[in-house]
Amino acid sequence: MKLFASTTLALALALGFTTPPAAASEGCYVCKSGSTGGCQQCAYGSKDTSEARKACEKRGCKIGGTKPCATSSGTKTCALPESPTLLTAALAR
Known about the structure:
- By secondary structure, the protein is α+β, with helices and mostly antiparallel strands.
- It has one domain (22-92).
- It has helices spanning 2-18, 22-25, 50-58, 84-92; strands at 27-31, 41-45, 63-68, 77-79.
- Strands 3-1-2-4 form a 4-stranded mixed beta sheet.
């Protein structure tokens, strides 16, 4: 029984330290009124960069600030691909 408890505790600790919290790593730009494309927020991932800002602006988001991404079903989110550089290259074509 003691071995089972030790194994369970070790497993719980290992999973807790290796799995990053999803909500903390997702950031969004708030799209102000007057934004086009129907987006209320534009997801940029874990880093707020000028490339991500430009890509969201090209999607029609007038950036009004940053916040953790809302997860409610009524919020329209425009998500960027893994690398904003790919979106920028695609839009330049």
